[in-house]
Amino acid sequence: MAMPHFKISKLLTNTDITTRKLELPTLILEYIPFMKGDHSMDLKAADIWGQEWELHYYTRPTGQKCPVFTTGWRQFDEAKRLQVGDEFIFYGHQVRVADGELKMLYMIEVKRLISMTFQGESNIITLDVEYLA
Fold this sequence. Notes:
Elements: E1 5-11, H1 14-18, E2 22-23, H2 28-31, E3 40-46, E4 52-58, E5 68-69, H3 73-80, E6 87-96, E7 102-118, E8 121-128
């Protein structure tokens, strides 16, 4: 059963940036479980501007579970110009839709550490990659 809300994050690796998949922390399986017998599903996640990104969520059908986003990840990666070391954040929260049913809404964002110098003082700040384009 899905949780009312969750948040997971990870630092992006070279593999995440250069391949067509994003390896997810296995903790996500607790929050977005597969229906019995299934090992993949499509879901939509909105960025901070409300643009929806369709992502294919997949894990191996047998053996060790290794959840990934496949189809759709590369488009997001290229559109946002992601870099190794960026922090990927994926979260969801339940909302009640017009017919009274509960639905999970997913959000996706990526943050980057930036070094800035102001008045001779060097600082590290975190910015959403949306503002760096």
